[in-house]
Amino acid sequence: MAQCAQSAREFIQNSFGPMVAVLCSHDAEVIAQKNNLTFVEMARPFCRLTTEAHIRDPQGQVNSIRNMRIILNDMNSQPPSSAIVRKMLNDVVGSIHPNAEASKSIITAGNYNLQLSSSTPWFEAYREHFLQVTLPSEHEFIRHFIACMLVVSSNHADPIDQFSKLNQQQHQLQHSSGINNPKWLCPNIFKYYILLHDNTEGEEEKAEAVYQSMKSTYGSHACHLLRINSRSLQAAEVASIGNEYTANMPDPWSQFMTNNSVDTGPDQVEMDISPNVDSGGFPDKVTEADPEHMNDPTQPGEPFPEDDDSPNGPMPDTNPSHPLSQPNDVVSHPLAVGHEANESQTIITEDNMDATDGNNKDIVLNKLVGVHGACLTLSDHDRLRIFIHEFVVRGLLPYIEKMIRTLSEQLASRKGISRSFISATKNWFGGKRNSDKANKTQVDMGGKYLRESPELQMRRLGDLAFLVQMYELAYTSFHTAKRDFNNDHAYMHCAGALEMAATSAFMVGSFNKVYPSHYMDSAVSMYAHTCKKPSFATRAILLSTETLKARGMYGEAAMEFIRMTGEDSDLRSALFLEQGAHCFINMKTPMARKYAFHMILAGHRYSKAGQRKHALRCYCQALQVYKGKGWILSEDHINFTIGRQSFNLKQLENASAAFKHLLTYDSRQPAVQQAAFLREYLFVFQQQMTIAAQEGKPLEPNLPQLPLPIINKVATKVLLANAEQPTLPDNKIAATSVSFDQLYDSAENDKWFELEEMVVKVANKSALSTLRPSQKLLHSRTNNSQRPVAVIREPITVELVLTNPLKVPLMLCDLSLLWRFTPLDYEKVNNETPEKPPTVISNENICMNIANEMIRSQIIPEFELKANEIKAVQLSLTPESTGELSIMGIVYSLSAPLQSSSTVPPSTNMEITDSPSLKHSKKTGSSTVSVRGRQDVDVQGPRLNGTLMEKRIMTYGPDRRLDPIIAPPMPLLEACFADFPYSLLCGEIGQTILEVSNKGDYSLHKLYIASKQPQCFAFRSPNNTDIQSGPLYRTIPLGDREDVDEHVVNVQNLSCVVEVPLPNGLLKPGCSASIPMWIRGPEKAGIHDVDILFYYESTEENFKLRHRVLRHSAVINTTHSLCLKATATRGHIPEHNQGNQSLVVSLQGENMNQVHDRNITEFSLEQVTCVSKTWALEHIATKDKQEFKISGGESVICCLKAQHCKQICTSDSNQVVFTDGVLGKEKIVSYESPCSDFFFRSKFKLKEIEPPPQEFSRTSNNTKSMSVKQSLEGALEVDLTLLVLWKAFVVDETGVSHKYVGQHHVTMTMLDQQISTIPTAQRMVEQKAVRFLKDIDVNKSDEPSSTVMIQLIKCSLQHPDHKDHDFTKKRLCTVPATLHLCNCTDKTLAIQVDTDTAPDNTPSMDTSSGYYVTPKPPNSSDFVWVRQVSQQLELSGNSSHQIHLLACFSKAGVFNLSNINVNVTRKSLGLEGEPVEQKKLLPSVITVSQTTNN
């Protein structure tokens, strides 16, 4: 919030004070020059009263005067030319800049937090100097001389005579009609006579005598003896050499001498102006809108700049040219290097500029720049202060008081007559009509008043009252005078009266009366438009805005400032626009956007005025509002202007940063403008680096940062392997490993880590305490908290995503990674000396040749990014030594094509020298600018959210993906598959060759393969590693033997981890091995992903990397083949073989390929092998062999019989029995590889290898009940697997026939349960109705299921299926039947057999058998059991019993005899509850026929 150092009242008081002319004799000036000062300069710091003075008004009342300031000027001084005034104002503004350490305030305006300067001293300095150099005018007396000081030295031969001469000189100058300057308040001004006495060289008696003579001649109130120079010149020189004076004496003249200096030092020019500025930016030449051309008398023929900042109008005798002549002329800027302030436009009077008379001109111009007031002591300072006080209090104020009283009396006596006479004259001659016409035309008709006219006397009275702080009298006088001036159409006089009336009203300090702001508005309008006096309008604006701001009316003050902006003065417009912007931000509701907008306008006008530093400051202030708020185009304009202005001021770092902002986001600029931005940035960057190289101070310790292209740091990926896959023949495919193209899946990643953990456990015989999963591809979603481990002499590839935000292409040349490496010998860690720090090597310095010996970097010669393109680049490093590597970013040369080779960037006087960071490449027809630099890739880690403090504070964890550790050499496994079968039938077995090679430096061993689909592949026996050609299965001729061969085979251990057989158990560096392996298609049709993890270790111990892994994901597409369904049921109990159970196995095979399929497939069942610990197939043979071929859409059913094995294996043994049922012409050896391998792998389940959960101890009752349950359930278990071997004959779309082999496995675990190789959709089980009553808790968890309970007894009914009987002879027919009961459990069961049942007539569905059971007819006399209708018995475990029954029929017909109920009591099982009805008998039908007698 910018505030002025002075308040509004102080500013107005300092702006207007009594003007006093000083006329010195030559000898007096010589005495003053001992102090490097003129007499006026010597007295000026003491021209303010430090005590309160008093004066009486016309009514006799005493008024106090405080802080009154006297303005002293040399009477003989000539006003400087307009060019000098303009240069002075420019220098004043340009020499003052905000201090970086100055206090700044933070303004909050809505969403904006603006940091603003607390003051604007350049504006205050401009305001002060502008008011000082304002010409005195005829329409006012406030700037006229009211008194004159005559100064004569006591050393003069005749001082009294010299006073007389000076008096005559002053009188002649005042009353001469041909001289307009200086101007005097009245004919009889107050004259004050000063006798200047040099204390060191003057005669005291003479001075005193002359002084007494002066008092008698001129009066004691008008005389003063001033003693100065109490220190001799020699003493002053000695003190100056020893710096004693500057250390002990104050220097009150420094501020006045600086402010009044016209010349600008070379440092200021060098700092503010840069030569050879680009004409397209901010030129040294300024085009004038309305110049006034007048050559300076001292520099004839020279063009002069604009007269807009000159505060004075033209003088008739010195400005004969018309003000509007030759518009739009281009002139040199007054601040340009090589141009002096030698142009003149208007000769004006400088009220406060101190120039000496003609005799002392040489002295003033050639005075030494050193200590001021060297011969003056503190007593002399006090004498000067007393001198001014006595002059004001004893001489000037009484004179002014007398003049005010005289003017008041004269005006009071003449006011009535003058007004009545003038009014009558105006009415008589039509003054009202002329007044209306004058108001319409707004032409100044005044300026014809006599000096003693009442109107001017009234104005003179108001000015005198204002100077002595009688503001009420001044307001009354001005208010009266403005009406007279307005009536006379004297608008210049009227504007002055209105201006001072408003100012006097403000200075009265009474807030009861409304401030007449409209007075000042009218004054500004009259000055600017009617009278064409912009300088006086500017003065009125300066006064008006201060009064408005003092009253808190910032909005109105801003409008006043903006009102006076125009094309006539760039400097004034810039200052006023800036002040208007500060007014907007100081309002009660700050208006930030208006502030920023007007600051931009001010910056533009500053740049036109040559004030580049102020222009840069304004644009920087405005950027605070527009930055990051979506005003993209405005932000582009501001940054571009800041860059240009900073470059012109040689602030290349700021220019580079500003141009950088134009290139770091999606710009809305057209392509041509973006290309210009890019060229500007590159050129400025070149200049910055060139100057830094010339000065020996590089911009950075290493390469500089470049803004383009934009790196998506989050998308950075690191691959600890070669990104390029090896080139292989068409029939081979390499292991997929990992690549940049793979999509990250956390579940899949966890799956690989689980496989690695499994294989580590197997390889090390136990789980490692700390297992760090192997990660070859690192990105934002992986765990990067630890440094990855790479291997020496193996590539490290980094993928970076680069974005070109511009609409023009970018070319990156010599693109490579930037790294820092610390070599460490991990194999000799204990021998290191901890005192000696390791050497850090980096490729940041291109002169370090050792860097290339440590790390070999890939360099891309050219990498092009098209317009708005997002493109990934892959760069690799190959370490040649162990240690710690840090990848910091990329290094490259950024270039952009220029429009033509003759395009000249912003010019400067700096030469472009050759530098490693600067390159110029020339191509045919175009020219490019290239800059060598870098970009850092500092990847931010994941946000931590574990603790409460981390949740409150934005805390991020480490991300070390770009900081790998280079480990010692390791073996490197490469694997490929030859003739890998990608398309298989379900269950088909194909063969492939696994080729492994060691590309590392050490031998590898312990090669394992881990997969969660081990049922899909198998290796050949390690003893037979030769690749064989021929059938997959080994076959033997089928003999004539009828018995069944039983082959006992050891069960293979099931695991996800399989050791790969290697020659001699290891693979040396550079060697390779081929391992045959079989692939079996999954039994479910579709696309299957088979993940394989290769694990291997080095034969040499490595502390940094114990093992390595290689991933491979194979895709297998399987199509439909066969669908096999099998059901095992108990066989009938033959009478002659009681107790020896058998199984009837029903096998159904269906060809799932349809007739309309593209491939015609026909299957042939070759062999059915039973694999079980207990059961064996009986020999299946027929005299005529018949092939079991199944065409598309067909199915075949065969029934097999299984008996107990001769070599029964216990359940705890690790052996199974293979028995073959040959259906083809040859017998396949099913107990050898690969048939047996895939059988055992088909039993693999992941849950089986997991440790079983711990169970709690049970009570003895629970243990007993569980044993009963297991015993009963074991009665229905069937451990039997059918291994079906088949051949497929396929004719593809091209008509080519193929022959494939495969196998299916059907495992039956329970009786009467159908098992299918293709899962079928199960029926939805009807849910029980919801009950809202609480059921009684019955613990049924220990009771076998109902499926088990109804199959405890195997029942079969034996009877003849036909009976002939003559019912005419014998009414009843009896048929004997035998009910066979077999206890399938090891328990003794209590059985109830009941034949006296009467079910309903409705047919019922037997869910167990799948048949409908027809009950007996409702007439019970047709069929009835007549023997042992109900019987109870106990049947020991695994025993059988026969019950002989007799059925009686009363008529012929077909009868179902299966309506017999067999129940088992629960008590016999140690359970509670009702008897359990056993499974219904299968329908047993008998036909009773009626026989007739012939």
Description of the molecule:
This protein is of the alpha+beta class. Helices cover 28% and strands 26% of the residues. It contains 33 helices and 62 strands. The strands form 15 sheets. Strands 16, 18, 19, 21, 23, 24, 25 and 26 form an eight-stranded mixed β-sheet that branches. Strands 12, 13, 15, 17, 20 and 22 form a six-stranded antiparallel β-sheet that branches. Helix 13 packs antiparallel against helix 15, helix 15 runs antiparallel to helix 16 and helix 24 runs antiparallel to helix 25. About 14% of the residues have low confidence.
Short synopsis of the structure:
The chain is α+β, with helices and mostly antiparallel strands and 1494 residues long.
Bin the strand percentage. Answer: 25-35%
Helices, by number, come to 33
What is the alpha-carbon Rg in Å? 59 Å
**Tally of strands:** 62
Secondary structure: helix percent:
25-40%
Uncertain regions: pLDDT < 50 for 5+ in a row?
A: 259-307, 312-369, 420-441, 900-926, 1022-1028, 1135-1139, 1247-1261, 1398-1420
Structural class: alpha+beta
Mind summarizing the main beta sheet? 8 strands, mixed
For this structure, the quaternary state is single chain
Termini distance? 141 Å
Mean pLDDT: 78
Q: Which outline best applies?
A: elongated
Output the keywords.
62 strands, 26% strand, eight-stranded mixed sheet, 1494 residues, single chain, six-stranded antiparallel sheet, alpha+beta
